[in-house]
Amino acid sequence: MTTSATRMEAACSLLSESKRRYLLYLLAETQEGNIENLITQITAWEYDQQATDINKETRQRVYVSLVHNHLPRLADYDIVDYDLRSGDIVLDEGFDDIKPLLEQFKQTEEVQEIRARPAL
């Protein structure tokens, strides 16, 4: 059994990584998405570039880190569920636990476009 403090520490640790937050901001708007469709926006925010200026290598680096690091971590905490074959990602039941904290993180993001997006 995990305590509330342990769950809060895990949530803060998960949300401390910008790529995970960016992914969750996007998924919070639609509840689901495909990594191929989300990767460009995540990369643009991560590297503070326009989507049209992102090169293939940079996009690939973000893709690999999401697939091999960030998605498995989020899935371990039942925040997302994903299928690598199709690239589909959906929010899972654990998302509701971190949603209020994610909203607080969103309000402090340096990227103005993120703060201006609709509320979670």
Automatic annotation (TrEMBL):
It comes from the Archaea. Residues 13-88 form the DUF7344 domain. InterPro entries: DUF7344. It holds the Pfam family DUF7344. This is DUF7344 domain-containing protein.
